[in-house]
Specification:
Number of strands: 0
Radius of gyration: 44 Å
Strand content: under 5%
Protein backbone atom coordinates (compact mmCIF):
# COMPACT_ATOMS: atom_id res chain seq x y z
CA UNK A 1 0.00 0.00 0.00
CA UNK A 2 1.43 3.35 -1.08
CA UNK A 3 0.58 5.75 1.72
CA UNK A 4 2.86 8.55 0.54
CA UNK A 5 1.73 9.03 -3.05
CA UNK A 6 2.16 12.56 -4.28
CA UNK A 7 -0.37 14.56 -6.20
CA UNK A 8 1.80 14.48 -9.33
CA UNK A 9 2.27 10.69 -9.32
CA UNK A 10 0.74 9.02 -12.37
CA UNK A 11 -0.92 10.53 -15.46
CA UNK A 12 -4.01 11.74 -13.59
CA UNK A 13 -1.90 13.54 -10.99
CA UNK A 14 0.24 15.26 -13.62
CA UNK A 15 -2.86 16.33 -15.53
CA UNK A 16 -4.31 17.83 -12.35
CA UNK A 17 -1.03 19.69 -11.72
CA UNK A 18 -1.03 21.17 -15.22
CA UNK A 19 -4.70 22.15 -14.98
CA UNK A 20 -4.05 23.85 -11.63
CA UNK A 21 -1.20 25.97 -12.98
CA UNK A 22 -3.24 26.96 -16.04
CA UNK A 23 -6.05 28.01 -13.72
CA UNK A 24 -3.66 30.11 -11.62
CA UNK A 25 -2.37 31.93 -14.69
CA UNK A 26 -5.88 32.69 -16.01
CA UNK A 27 -7.17 33.77 -12.60
CA UNK A 28 -4.16 36.01 -11.96
CA UNK A 29 -4.49 37.50 -15.43
CA UNK A 30 -8.21 38.18 -14.87
CA UNK A 31 -7.54 39.83 -11.50
CA UNK A 32 -4.79 41.97 -13.03
CA UNK A 33 -7.04 43.01 -15.93
CA UNK A 34 -9.75 44.04 -13.49
CA UNK A 35 -7.29 46.19 -11.53
CA UNK A 36 -5.97 47.77 -14.73
CA UNK A 37 -9.55 48.51 -15.77
CA UNK A 38 -10.14 50.28 -12.47
CA UNK A 39 -6.83 52.12 -12.84
CA UNK A 40 -7.75 53.35 -16.30
CA UNK A 41 -11.18 54.71 -15.26
CA UNK A 42 -10.90 55.81 -11.65
CA UNK A 43 -7.79 58.07 -11.23
CA UNK A 44 -8.06 61.73 -12.44
CA UNK A 45 -6.06 61.30 -15.64
CA UNK A 46 -5.50 64.25 -18.00
CA UNK A 47 -8.15 64.42 -20.67
CA UNK A 48 -5.65 64.19 -23.50
CA UNK A 49 -4.04 60.96 -22.22
CA UNK A 50 -5.16 57.95 -24.23
CA UNK A 51 -6.52 54.87 -22.41
CA UNK A 52 -3.70 52.60 -23.55
CA UNK A 53 -1.19 55.01 -21.96
CA UNK A 54 -3.17 54.82 -18.77
CA UNK A 55 -3.21 51.01 -18.97
CA UNK A 56 0.54 50.92 -19.57
CA UNK A 57 1.17 53.12 -16.54
CA UNK A 58 -1.17 51.16 -14.24
CA UNK A 59 -0.27 47.62 -15.40
CA UNK A 60 3.06 47.31 -13.49
CA UNK A 61 1.44 48.29 -10.18
CA UNK A 62 -1.51 45.96 -10.71
CA UNK A 63 0.84 43.12 -11.61
CA UNK A 64 2.98 43.81 -8.53
CA UNK A 65 -0.04 43.46 -6.26
CA UNK A 66 -0.96 40.03 -7.66
CA UNK A 67 2.65 38.96 -8.03
CA UNK A 68 3.34 40.01 -4.44
CA UNK A 69 0.59 37.72 -3.22
CA UNK A 70 2.03 34.83 -5.24
CA UNK A 71 5.63 35.41 -4.14
CA UNK A 72 4.80 35.72 -0.46
CA UNK A 73 2.56 32.61 -0.65
CA UNK A 74 5.39 30.60 -2.24
CA UNK A 75 7.85 31.79 0.41
CA UNK A 76 5.38 30.90 3.17
CA UNK A 77 4.93 27.41 1.70
CA UNK A 78 8.71 26.92 1.49
CA UNK A 79 9.27 27.89 5.12
CA UNK A 80 6.38 25.69 6.23
CA UNK A 81 7.96 22.71 4.51
CA UNK A 82 11.00 23.31 6.71
CA UNK A 83 8.81 23.08 9.79
CA UNK A 84 8.29 26.79 10.46
CA UNK A 85 4.94 28.51 10.98
CA UNK A 86 5.84 31.36 8.55
CA UNK A 87 3.19 33.67 9.98
CA UNK A 88 4.81 36.79 8.51
CA UNK A 89 4.85 35.53 4.93
CA UNK A 90 1.32 34.22 5.25
CA UNK A 91 0.02 37.55 6.57
CA UNK A 92 1.74 39.48 3.75
CA UNK A 93 0.27 37.10 1.19
CA UNK A 94 -3.24 37.53 2.61
CA UNK A 95 -2.86 41.33 2.73
CA UNK A 96 -1.69 41.46 -0.91
CA UNK A 97 -4.60 39.36 -2.11
CA UNK A 98 -7.06 41.39 -0.01
CA UNK A 99 -5.82 44.63 -1.59
CA UNK A 100 -6.23 43.21 -5.10
CA UNK A 101 -9.73 41.91 -4.39
CA UNK A 102 -10.76 45.21 -2.74
CA UNK A 103 -9.60 47.20 -5.78
CA UNK A 104 -11.67 45.02 -8.09
CA UNK A 105 -14.78 45.00 -5.91
CA UNK A 106 -14.77 48.70 -5.00
CA UNK A 107 -13.64 49.87 -8.43
CA UNK A 108 -16.46 47.98 -10.17
CA UNK A 109 -19.16 48.62 -7.57
CA UNK A 110 -21.36 50.23 -10.20
CA UNK A 111 -21.29 47.01 -12.27
CA UNK A 112 -21.93 44.05 -9.89
CA UNK A 113 -21.11 41.51 -12.56
CA UNK A 114 -17.59 42.87 -13.07
CA UNK A 115 -17.08 43.22 -9.31
CA UNK A 116 -18.11 39.59 -8.76
CA UNK A 117 -16.04 38.24 -11.66
CA UNK A 118 -12.77 40.09 -11.01
CA UNK A 119 -13.05 39.97 -7.21
CA UNK A 120 -14.16 36.34 -7.20
CA UNK A 121 -11.26 35.30 -9.43
CA UNK A 122 -8.77 36.64 -6.90
CA UNK A 123 -10.46 35.00 -3.89
CA UNK A 124 -10.99 31.69 -5.65
CA UNK A 125 -7.47 31.51 -7.03
CA UNK A 126 -5.95 32.30 -3.62
CA UNK A 127 -8.11 29.66 -1.90
CA UNK A 128 -7.23 26.98 -4.45
CA UNK A 129 -3.54 27.86 -4.15
CA UNK A 130 -3.64 27.52 -0.37
CA UNK A 131 -5.21 24.05 -0.56
CA UNK A 132 -2.96 22.97 -3.43
CA UNK A 133 0.23 24.09 -1.73
CA UNK A 134 -0.89 22.52 1.57
CA UNK A 135 -1.44 19.16 -0.17
CA UNK A 136 1.98 19.32 -1.86
CA UNK A 137 3.57 20.32 1.44
CA UNK A 138 2.01 17.35 3.25
CA UNK A 139 3.25 15.00 0.54
CA UNK A 140 6.77 16.39 0.87
CA UNK A 141 6.69 16.09 4.66
CA UNK A 142 5.48 12.49 4.45
CA UNK A 143 8.22 11.64 1.98
CA UNK A 144 10.75 13.13 4.42
CA UNK A 145 9.27 11.20 7.35
CA UNK A 146 8.15 14.36 9.16
CA UNK A 147 4.41 13.70 8.86
CA UNK A 148 2.35 10.60 9.62
CA UNK A 149 0.98 8.58 6.71
CA UNK A 150 -2.70 8.56 5.94
CA UNK A 151 -4.74 5.62 7.21
CA UNK A 152 -7.17 3.63 5.05
CA UNK A 153 -10.72 4.94 4.75
CA UNK A 154 -12.92 2.54 6.73
CA UNK A 155 -16.26 4.22 6.12
CA UNK A 156 -19.02 5.33 8.46
CA UNK A 157 -20.64 1.89 8.56
CA UNK A 158 -17.44 0.25 9.82
CA UNK A 159 -16.90 2.97 12.44
CA UNK A 160 -20.50 2.58 13.61
CA UNK A 161 -20.39 -1.23 13.73
CA UNK A 162 -16.97 -1.74 15.36
CA UNK A 163 -15.62 1.54 16.77
CA UNK A 164 -12.98 -0.07 19.00
CA UNK A 165 -11.78 -2.43 16.27
CA UNK A 166 -11.67 0.36 13.69
CA UNK A 167 -9.74 2.64 16.03
CA UNK A 168 -7.17 -0.09 16.68
CA UNK A 169 -7.02 -0.98 12.97
CA UNK A 170 -6.28 2.63 12.09
CA UNK A 171 -3.38 2.70 14.55
CA UNK A 172 -2.01 -0.60 13.24
CA UNK A 173 -2.30 0.57 9.64
CA UNK A 174 -0.30 3.71 10.41
CA UNK A 175 2.31 1.89 12.49
CA UNK A 176 2.83 -1.16 10.25
CA UNK A 177 1.61 0.12 6.84
CA UNK A 178 -1.22 -2.44 6.65
CA UNK A 179 -3.99 -2.33 4.05
CA UNK A 180 -7.61 -1.94 5.07
CA UNK A 181 -8.77 -5.55 5.49
CA UNK A 182 -5.47 -6.78 6.93
CA UNK A 183 -5.53 -4.02 9.54
CA UNK A 184 -9.08 -4.94 10.58
CA UNK A 185 -8.16 -8.63 10.93
CA UNK A 186 -5.06 -7.78 12.94
CA UNK A 187 -7.06 -5.44 15.20
CA UNK A 188 -9.71 -8.06 15.93
CA UNK A 189 -7.07 -10.67 16.75
CA UNK A 190 -5.12 -8.25 18.93
CA UNK A 191 -8.20 -7.24 20.91
CA UNK A 192 -9.17 -10.89 21.43
CA UNK A 193 -5.66 -11.70 22.65
CA UNK A 194 -5.65 -8.73 25.00
CA UNK A 195 -9.03 -9.67 26.46
CA UNK A 196 -7.91 -13.25 27.04
CA UNK A 197 -4.57 -12.15 28.50
CA UNK A 198 -6.29 -9.76 30.93
CA UNK A 199 -8.58 -12.55 32.15
CA UNK A 200 -5.64 -14.92 32.46
CA UNK A 201 -3.60 -12.33 34.37
CA UNK A 202 -6.50 -11.92 36.80
CA UNK A 203 -6.55 -15.66 37.47
CA UNK A 204 -2.76 -15.71 37.86
CA UNK A 205 -2.98 -12.94 40.43
CA UNK A 206 -5.67 -14.85 42.32
CA UNK A 207 -3.49 -17.97 42.32
CA UNK A 208 -0.44 -16.07 43.56
CA UNK A 209 -2.39 -14.44 46.38
CA UNK A 210 -3.88 -17.79 47.42
CA UNK A 211 -0.40 -19.16 48.12
CA UNK A 212 0.27 -16.59 50.86
CA UNK A 213 -1.65 -16.48 54.12
CA UNK A 214 -0.25 -13.07 54.96
CA UNK A 215 -2.13 -10.44 52.88
CA UNK A 216 0.92 -8.15 52.84
CA UNK A 217 3.11 -10.87 51.37
CA UNK A 218 0.36 -11.68 48.91
CA UNK A 219 0.25 -8.04 47.79
CA UNK A 220 4.05 -7.93 47.44
CA UNK A 221 4.13 -11.12 45.38
CA UNK A 222 1.27 -10.03 43.12
CA UNK A 223 2.76 -6.56 42.63
CA UNK A 224 6.33 -7.69 42.03
CA UNK A 225 5.50 -10.13 39.26
CA UNK A 226 4.67 -8.91 35.77
CA UNK A 227 1.31 -10.62 35.50
CA UNK A 228 0.97 -9.84 31.80
CA UNK A 229 4.35 -11.47 31.11
CA UNK A 230 3.33 -14.54 33.13
CA UNK A 231 0.06 -14.73 31.19
CA UNK A 232 1.92 -14.44 27.87
CA UNK A 233 4.34 -17.20 28.93
CA UNK A 234 1.44 -19.45 29.89
CA UNK A 235 -0.18 -18.86 26.51
CA UNK A 236 3.06 -19.86 24.79
CA UNK A 237 3.26 -23.09 26.81
CA UNK A 238 -0.38 -24.08 26.35
CA UNK A 239 -0.86 -27.50 24.73
CA UNK A 240 -3.76 -26.58 22.46
CA UNK A 241 -3.77 -29.85 20.42
CA UNK A 242 -3.62 -31.88 23.63
CA UNK A 243 -6.62 -30.12 25.12
CA UNK A 244 -8.46 -30.51 21.83
CA UNK A 245 -7.86 -34.27 21.93
CA UNK A 246 -9.02 -34.52 25.55
CA UNK A 247 -12.19 -32.53 24.92
CA UNK A 248 -12.85 -34.39 21.68
CA UNK A 249 -12.54 -37.73 23.48
CA UNK A 250 -15.04 -36.59 26.10
CA UNK A 251 -17.50 -35.60 23.37
CA UNK A 252 -17.57 -39.04 21.69
CA UNK A 253 -21.07 -40.60 21.71
CA UNK A 254 -21.67 -43.38 24.26
CA UNK A 255 -21.79 -47.01 23.18
CA UNK A 256 -25.19 -48.47 22.26
CA UNK A 257 -26.82 -50.40 25.15
CA UNK A 258 -27.22 -54.16 24.79
CA UNK A 259 -30.98 -53.85 24.80
CA UNK A 260 -30.92 -52.02 21.47
CA UNK A 261 -29.11 -54.84 19.67
CA UNK A 262 -30.74 -56.82 16.89
CA UNK A 263 -32.60 -59.88 18.28
CA UNK A 264 -31.20 -62.04 15.49
CA UNK A 265 -27.70 -61.10 16.48
CA UNK A 266 -28.41 -61.93 20.13
CA UNK A 267 -29.39 -65.48 19.17
CA UNK A 268 -26.01 -66.09 17.54
CA UNK A 269 -23.36 -67.81 19.63
CA UNK A 270 -21.02 -65.47 21.42
CA UNK A 271 -17.63 -65.01 19.83
CA UNK A 272 -14.52 -65.75 21.83
CA UNK A 273 -13.28 -62.90 24.01
CA UNK A 274 -10.60 -60.84 22.32
CA UNK A 275 -9.27 -59.47 25.61
CA UNK A 276 -8.70 -61.35 28.79
CA UNK A 277 -9.85 -59.92 32.09
CA UNK A 278 -12.37 -57.18 32.79
CA UNK A 279 -13.25 -54.55 30.20
CA UNK A 280 -10.89 -51.53 30.52
CA UNK A 281 -12.39 -48.08 31.10
CA UNK A 282 -13.70 -46.23 28.06
CA UNK A 283 -11.21 -43.38 28.42
CA UNK A 284 -8.34 -45.90 28.33
CA UNK A 285 -9.75 -47.55 25.20
CA UNK A 286 -9.92 -44.19 23.46
CA UNK A 287 -6.29 -43.50 24.28
CA UNK A 288 -4.84 -46.64 22.67
CA UNK A 289 -3.00 -45.63 19.45
CA UNK A 290 -4.60 -46.90 16.25
CA UNK A 291 -1.56 -46.74 13.94
CA UNK A 292 1.06 -49.47 14.26
CA UNK A 293 4.06 -47.15 14.72
CA UNK A 294 2.56 -45.25 17.65
CA UNK A 295 1.28 -48.50 19.16
CA UNK A 296 4.76 -50.08 18.97
CA UNK A 297 6.20 -46.97 20.57
CA UNK A 298 3.76 -47.27 23.46
CA UNK A 299 4.60 -50.99 23.89
CA UNK A 300 8.30 -50.14 24.04
CA UNK A 301 7.73 -47.45 26.66
CA UNK A 302 5.45 -49.75 28.64
CA UNK A 303 8.12 -52.45 28.64
CA UNK A 304 10.58 -49.97 30.14
CA UNK A 305 8.03 -48.91 32.75
CA UNK A 306 7.40 -52.55 33.73
CA UNK A 307 11.13 -53.18 33.98
CA UNK A 308 11.60 -50.20 36.30
CA UNK A 309 8.27 -49.64 38.12
CA UNK A 310 9.80 -47.31 40.71
CA UNK A 311 10.96 -44.69 38.20
CA UNK A 312 9.47 -41.23 38.62
CA UNK A 313 6.99 -40.35 35.85
CA UNK A 314 8.53 -36.90 35.44
CA UNK A 315 12.01 -38.37 34.97
CA UNK A 316 10.67 -40.94 32.49
CA UNK A 317 8.82 -38.25 30.53
CA UNK A 318 11.91 -36.04 30.34
CA UNK A 319 14.09 -38.96 29.24
CA UNK A 320 11.83 -39.83 26.30
CA UNK A 321 10.68 -36.32 25.40
CA UNK A 322 7.00 -36.88 26.12
CA UNK A 323 4.53 -35.24 28.47
CA UNK A 324 3.84 -36.39 32.01
CA UNK A 325 0.20 -36.87 31.05
CA UNK A 326 1.21 -39.28 28.27
CA UNK A 327 3.30 -41.35 30.71
CA UNK A 328 0.25 -41.71 32.93
CA UNK A 329 -1.88 -42.88 30.00
CA UNK A 330 0.74 -45.43 28.91
CA UNK A 331 0.88 -46.85 32.43
CA UNK A 332 -2.92 -47.09 32.70
CA UNK A 333 -3.20 -48.68 29.25
CA UNK A 334 -0.45 -51.19 30.02
CA UNK A 335 -1.99 -52.14 33.34
CA UNK A 336 -5.25 -52.81 31.49
CA UNK A 337 -3.49 -55.41 29.32
CA UNK A 338 -4.07 -53.52 26.07
CA UNK A 339 -0.36 -53.39 25.22
CA UNK A 340 0.41 -57.10 25.62
CA UNK A 341 -0.26 -58.06 22.00
CA UNK A 342 1.94 -56.95 19.08
CA UNK A 343 -1.23 -56.15 17.13
CA UNK A 344 -3.14 -52.93 17.64
CA UNK A 345 -6.53 -53.09 19.27
CA UNK A 346 -8.38 -52.38 16.03
CA UNK A 347 -6.38 -55.07 14.21
CA UNK A 348 -7.19 -57.62 16.90
CA UNK A 349 -10.89 -56.82 16.67
CA UNK A 350 -10.80 -57.07 12.87
CA UNK A 351 -8.92 -60.39 13.05
CA UNK A 352 -11.42 -61.76 15.51
CA UNK A 353 -14.33 -60.73 13.28
CA UNK A 354 -12.69 -62.34 10.24
CA UNK A 355 -11.98 -65.58 12.07
CA UNK A 356 -15.45 -66.15 13.50
CA UNK A 357 -17.56 -64.18 10.99
CA UNK A 358 -20.51 -64.78 13.26
CA UNK A 359 -20.70 -68.56 12.54
CA UNK A 360 -20.05 -71.55 14.78
CA UNK A 361 -18.47 -74.69 13.22
CA UNK A 362 -21.11 -77.35 12.52
CA UNK A 363 -20.31 -80.82 13.99
CA UNK A 364 -22.34 -83.87 12.74
CA UNK A 365 -24.26 -85.82 15.35
CA UNK A 366 -22.60 -89.02 16.56
CA UNK A 367 -24.26 -92.37 15.78
CA UNK A 368 -26.06 -93.90 18.68
Amino acid sequence: MNLTAKLGDGPHGRAAEHAAWIFYVIAALGSTIGQIWVGVQTPPWPDGLDWWWRAALVAPFAAVIDLGGVVTAVLADWRQRLGEAAYGWRVLSAVSVTVGVAINVIGHHDVPYLAAVFGGLGVFAYSVWQMHSAARRRDALRAAGKLADTAPVYGLAQWWREPAVTRRARSLALAHRLPLHESLDAARQQLRDEKRRVALATHVETLIRSRHDDPVRADIAATTLDLDAVAAALEAQADVPGWARVIGADLLPPASPDGDADPDVKRKPAAPRALAGPMPPADVLRRVPQDQASYDRWRQLWAELKADPDIEPAEFAQRHGISLRQVQWIRRTGNSGLLDSPLTLIDRIAQLATTTNGHVPHHPASAS
